[in-house]
């Protein structure tokens, strides 16, 4: 839904040097794949190198899932993400909030700690987060290389963040 639309707006501003692109979706996400394929098809009309992949991982947390069971499902999602991130070896992880990004980023951090591959993590908090961070934002604030917010009130509360104004 909204996270996919926001990330695709961000990607539309990137040059063709950001290729190939690897999209990681929650296995229960039914809408995002069609949006991504449509975006990439339009992008292929402009750029010659429109290489992308779609991968699915278990959702780390369902809406209204208890905190206790969320720990277990997130750990499972991390274990599932590790071989994927090892295979992809991304240079950059650009994410914007769905719970799926947390296990992907943690997996990338673990591979970096093991000196296998260091990925730069850029987290962009959703435009709808005006005064507080999302749960993913609260976690990734401490681990991302760049943490971008779209409202000045968030920059004031979270000094490590970068305020660029509205970017989506």
UniProtKB/TrEMBL annotation:
GO CC entries: UDP-N-acetylglucosamine transferase complex
GO MF, one annotated term: N-acetylglucosaminyldiphosphodolichol N-acetylglucosaminyltransferase activity
Coiled coil: none
InterPro entries xref list: Oligosacch_biosynth_Alg14
Annotated family: Belongs to the ALG14 family.
Subunit structure: Forms with ALG13 the active heterodimeric UDP-N-acetylglucosamine transferase complex.
PANTHER family (UniProt xref): GLYCOSYL TRANSFERASE-RELATED (PTHR12154), UDP-N-ACETYLGLUCOSAMINE TRANSFERASE SUBUNIT ALG14 HOMOLOG (PTHR12154:SF4)
Record protein name field: UDP-N-acetylglucosamine transferase subunit ALG14
Organism lineage string: Eukaryota, Metazoa, Chordata, Craniata, Vertebrata
């Amino acid at each position: 839904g909204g996270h996919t639309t926001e990330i695709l707006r961000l990607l539309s501003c990137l040059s063709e040097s950001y290729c190939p692109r690897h999209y990681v979706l929650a296995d229960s996400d039914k809408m995002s794949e069609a949006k991504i394929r449509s975006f990439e098809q339009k992008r292929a009309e402009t750029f010659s190198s429109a290489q992308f992949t779609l991968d699915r991982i278990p959702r780390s947390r369902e809406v209204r899932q208890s905190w206790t069971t969320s720990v277990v499902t997130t750990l499972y999602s991390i274990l599932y993400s590790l071989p994927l991130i090892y295979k992809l070896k991304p240079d950059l992880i650009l994410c914007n909030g769905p719970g799926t990004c947390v296990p992907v980023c943690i997996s990338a951090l673990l591979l970096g700690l093991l000196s296998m591959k260091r990925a730069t993590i850029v987290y962009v908090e959703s435009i709808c987060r005006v005064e507080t961070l999302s749960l993913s934002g609260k976690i990734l604030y401490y681990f991302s290389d760049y943490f971008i917010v779209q409202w000045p009130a968030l920059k004031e509360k979270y000094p490590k963040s970068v305020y660029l104004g509205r970017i989506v």
